[in-house]
Write a structure and sequence with these properties.
Helices cover about 20% and strands about 30% of the residues. The chain starts with a helix and ends in a 15-residue tail after the last strand. It has nine helices and 19 strands.
């Protein structure tokens, strides 16, 4: 269990909070590029407890505070002009850096405008996702995760309905392997697993987070040990690999858990299915799907894996009270992640650079991750195996 003070430390992410300061040191995935179009170039959103407006300009994106600095009207009802956004109330216009470049009713615009700076954050596009950097300058490199940067295959984004719970509940699930067969497996499948396999779970801190490794020794089939390995990319992304239902087609994904505020979380999943006959550059248009956890009656769709997870996370409460939990030996991954999270919070508090941050000048072409599932013969796509 955690103390009440540590539970607050790890879960609260608004401006000025220690965990919020840590999360703001990373490029945060905030939207799918497909959500902004020429017809609807403005999107209101809330990220890390801040109300913001995302817009698509003539040759880039802008992310600014929702309320105009003049009289606090919402810029979400404004209009995009070039790479700027204009307030619908009095016409003040801001560029993507937050500078006020026009004040239609003011006689001495230059002197006044120099004093007005709208909160603004940098936005970059990669693999169909839009990322924002909300931390102190200078901004680090945007990690080119393999799923977002590979080119030979099909890529698509799935956006989930908003979760009514704190972000940490979603991330702890990523290092909780004992829930797999109980929450996601049928009774028959569970019995088979418990009867035939003895599993060892390891959680290894590496350059970008925690590598999860499950080694399964077959006791009745006489086969070789089987390995399933994939990482939690610190602080709030899970890198995973799966197979399409009814086939052996490989499907790699990044599961991005973005804190909206302390009691709500937005999830995007970027998917990539290798196919040597398809070329999809990282800046190509990427289709967007939507998924609702609940059915028409308001209950969780328990025949769907994402809804099973959502049920577990939401029913823990808006912010789980970890002072009352009872952890066991199977929860060592959760303990590992919490210790790492607290350690990195304290590191940032002390003025240090947290795990996985790469200076912009040292940006890597592609960050390939050793994702293995020998049970069904899954590895990285052939096109990138052995690449630099």
């Amino acid at each position: 269990m955690l103390s009440r003070e540590d539970n607050e430390l790890l879960t609260r992410i608004g401006p000025g909070t220690p965990a919020g300061a840590l999360l703001r040191r990373y490029w945060q995935p905030i939207a799918a590029a497909a959500e902004l179009t020429d017809e609807k170039p403005i999107m209101k959103l809330r990220v890390l407890g801040e109300d913001l407006v995302l817009y698509k300009g003539a040759d880039g994106y802008g992310l600014v505070a929702e309320q105009c600095a003049h009289r606090f009207a919402s810029l979400s009802y404004g209009r995009v002009e070039g790479n700027c956004i204009r307030c619908p109330y009095h016409g003040w216009k801001y560029d993507a850096e937050g500078h006020c470049v026009e004040m239609p009713a003011e006689p001495n615009v230059t002197a006044f405008a120099d004093k007005v700076v709208q909160t603004a954050y940098s936005v970059r596009h990669l693999g169909g996702m839009l990322f924002a950097y909300m931390g102190p300058a200078p901004a680090p490199a945007l990690p080119k995760w393999d799923v977002l940067a590979w080119q030979h295959g099909r890529r698509w984004i799935r956006k989930f309905a908003v979760l009514n719970c704190n972000w940490l509940q979603c991330m702890e699930n990523s290092v909780d392997p004992s829930h797999l067969y109980w929450l996601h497996g049928s009774s028959a499948h569970l019995a088979k697993v418990m009867d035939h396999y003895d599993e060892q779970h390891d959680f290894i801190t590496f350059d970008y987070g925690i590598m999860k490794r499950r080694t399964t020794a077959a006791t009745k089939s006489g086969g070789r040990p089987m390995v399933d390995q994939h990482p939690l990319l610190f602080p709030n992304i899970l890198r995973h690999v799966a197979t399409a239902k009814g086939s052996r087609a490989r499907r790699h994904n990044l599961q991005c858990r973005i804190p909206i505020d302390d009691t709500h979380t937005q999830i995007y999943i970027a998917n990539f299915q290798p196919d040597p006959s398809v070329v999809m550059p990282p800046d190509a248009e990427v289709p967007l799907e939507h998924f609702n956890f609940r059915d028409g009656a308001g209950g969780f769709r328990m025949d769907q894996v994402p809804a099973q997870d959502a049920m577990a996370w939401e029913t823990q409460g808006p912010v789980m009270d970890r002072t009352r939990e009872r952890l066991g030996a199977a929860d060592k991954g959760i303990v590992t992640y919490r210790r790492l999270l607290k350690q990195q919070i304290e590191l940032v508090r002390a003025g240090g650079t947290p795990l996985g941050i790469v200076p912009a000048e040292a940006e890597k072409p592609i960050i390939e991750l050793e994702v293995i599932n020998e049970r069904i013969g899954l590895e990285r796509p052939e096109e990138v195996r052995g690449a630099a």
